[in-house]
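INSTRUCTION: Work out how this chain folds

Fields: amino acid sequence; protein backbone structure tokens

Chain under study, with its fold:
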Amino acid sequence: MRMVRDAVVRHSMVGTSVTLALTVGHRTFSKKLKVDADLGDTKEQIKKSKEYSELLSTKKSVASILNFMDVNDFESVEGFVREAIDGGRVEISFIMKKKK
């Protein structure tokens, strides 16, 4: 999780754009996705992050999540994959920004 937070800090310093850290995780042989969205630390950002997390966790694929975010004016800036050896959890993280 530390890598995601560092990337958000670096990107946020570039300008005043809205930045979103999006982590999509699932266990091997499981079709259920768990999505964690992070827009920031203010009460409004935390509330919106929770709404995005709950809504996006109902999606069936990573592509449908990215398509949804595109329709909501976010674009991917950076992405990376992490695998946890214990428990077979795979996470894909995206740093996204609001389109201008």
